[in-house]
Design brief:
Helices cover 26% and strands 27% of the residues. It contains four helices and eight strands, in the order ααββββββαββα. Strands 1, 2, 5 and 8 form a four-stranded mixed beta sheet that branches. A hairpin with a 4-residue loop joins strand 1 and strand 2.
Amino acid sequence: PYEVYQAAVETSGFVEDESPVSNNNIAARGPRYRPQGNLFVFNTDINLPEPLKGVTVKSRNFMKLGITTTDANGHFYIDRPYKRKAMIIGKFKNNRATTRGINGVLKVWQYIFPVKHKIGRFYDNGLQTINFTFPRDINPHSETARKWAAASTMNAVWDIDQFNQQNNIAS
């Protein structure tokens, strides 16, 4: 199985060091980066981006996976270290709501899975300064419009939950 693992690592583009390094020697392993940043959605009422609240953010690289949720300021921090690179994905779901974007075309997976967006692949220090804004698109059938609507919906769910808590209204 070790040879199979090595072959899988090499085909994925992730190259491990040749020499075995003990876990106690952090300097010899090289720097590790933990993904963090801010997500925004363009608000058409104020004509500015606003923080995207309560959205699941995932990071992955080969066999590592980190998951977190954005806070009220749209900030996320994934406490999973990556050595070189990681793919960052935003999913429009949390423990309160799941947003599915059906754009009028019969695509079965749109009825099943939440809307998601690959924010991008980030490298080294770039993992610690991720900023992304979901823009608005006037074409209602575009993927950009679908993701903007999902982001706006997640913000609306967050805001109504906060309003209900402040006014002692049962959710």
